[in-house]
Structure formats: C-alpha cells, structure tokens
C-alpha cells in the first residue's frame, strides 16, 4: 500500500509502505514516523475514511474497497475503535455529553465506569464543562475515554498522548490496555516522539 501523494517519491526503509504488513488481534503496535510521514493517512486508510492509496488493504481477507457504507458502519460500530489526532469532539458539549453520545449508542460502559475513568484521568471536575474551553491535554483525555466506549477488535490511536505529561500518559495507557485485554483486541498507535506508555509495543517505521 502507498498513499497517492507518495507515488512519485522514493520511500526509504519503510516497514509499511510498499510492504506486506499483517496486523492481528491482540497485537501492540507502535507506528513511528517524522511529521508528514503518513501516520494519520495510514489510520484513515485503516478506518476507511480515505481511499487515496495504491495497493490492497484487506479486513478478514476481504478487500475493503468492496465494502459499502453499511459494512463500514458495522465495522466501526463493532470492530474498529478510532481516536483521530484532531479528536473530533463537539466543543459546545460537555465532557460527559461527548462521551455519552457514543456510549449511549453502544452501551459499552456503565455510567459508574465512565465516572471512574474521568476520576483516574484527573478530569472529573471538568465533567460538565464544555470541551471547547478545556486545554488540549484535557480534551485528549476526554477523547481517550470516548474511544473505548464500544466493542472493538482493534483500536487505532493517532498520537493519543501528544499533550499529556508522563503521569497521565501512563494512566491513559492503562485504561486502553485494560479494555483491549478485556476484548482480546489489538492496539495500533502512532507517534512522532511522545509515544503512549503501553508495555511491549512493537515499533515499526513508516
């Protein structure tokens, strides 16, 4: 697979582009690259929100280009969680409302579990605060909780802790690992330098 924007360029020593990469449930994968190396593009390809690439991407042995909207909806609802770099929160809604918009659809976490995660990440005092008035680090913590509010076989995390200190990084990592282990799911995270503190991450370069 290769992004269309890279097709006329030489991609040196990439373990992903122009290579055959197999990602299985239960994996812990860190994808590293310099800024502009295609980390967010790769996540968008895996999530099906972009198709401007050359090559073949398969999900359960089926070329994803054959999937219709209904199939992608089912995959994103039940198999593939995603935390995009831009977070995609609703700024006028509170932290609680942003999380529950998803959690009410999936029924994945109890209200008490959501309250626990807010407390662990140090933002329980911002529960009813509009996220648009929060710091980027606080918004990342809200988005991390929202990302695990669903069943998934894989969770995609695009630079999920870029604005977190080491303490909150570890707590966020613990939460994601707990949910991934509970579901037997794989973790795929990107980093440009500040990687999420998940043990046993296998690093590959774009």
Describe the fold and architecture:
The chain is built from six helices and nine strands. With 206 residues, the chain is α/β, with parallel strands linked by helices. The strands form three sheets. It has a five-stranded parallel β-sheet, sandwiched between helices. A two-stranded antiparallel ribbon has the order 1-3. Helix 6 links the parallel strand 7 and strand 8 (186-191).
Which features would summarize this protein structure in a list?
206 residues, alpha/beta, 5-stranded parallel β-sheet, 6 helices, 9 strands, globular
Provide a brief overview of the structure.
By secondary structure, this protein is of the alpha/beta class.
Give me the secondary-structure topology.
Layout: E1 2-3, E2 28-32, H1 39-47, E3 53-54, E4 58-59, E5 62-63, H2 69-78, E6 80-83, H3 95-106, H4 111-120, H5 136-147, E7 154-157, H6 166-183, E8 186-191, E9 202-205
Parallel strand pairs: 2-8, 2-9, 6-7, 7-8
Antiparallel strand pairs: 1-3, 4-5
Helix pairs in contact: 3-5
């Amino acid at each position: 697979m290769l992004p269309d924007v890279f097709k006329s360029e030489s991609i040196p020593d990439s373990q992903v582009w122009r290579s055959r990469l197999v990602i299985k449930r239960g994996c812990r994968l860190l994808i590293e690259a310099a800024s502009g190396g295609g980390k967010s593009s790769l996540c968008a390809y895996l999530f099906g929100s972009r198709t401007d690439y050359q090559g073949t991407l398969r999900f359960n042995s089926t070329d994803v280009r054959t999937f219709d909207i209904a199939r992608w909806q089912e995959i994103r609802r039940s198999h593939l969680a995603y935390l995009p770099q831009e977070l995609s929160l609703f700024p006028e809604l509170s932290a609680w409302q942003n999380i529950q918009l998803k959690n009410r659809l999936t029924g994945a976490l109890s209200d008490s579990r959501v309250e626990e995660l807010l407390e662990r990440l140090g933002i329980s005092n911002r529960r009813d605060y509009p996220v648009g008035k929060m710091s980027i680090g606080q918004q990342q913590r809200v988005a991390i909780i929202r990302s695990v509010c669903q069943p998934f076989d894989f969770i995609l995390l695009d630079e999920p802790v870029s604005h977190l200190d080491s303490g909150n990084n570890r707590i966020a990592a613990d939460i994601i690992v707990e949910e991934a282990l509970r579901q037997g799911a794989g973790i795929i995270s990107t980093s440009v330098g500040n990687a999420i503190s998940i043990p046993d991450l296998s690093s590959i370069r774009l």
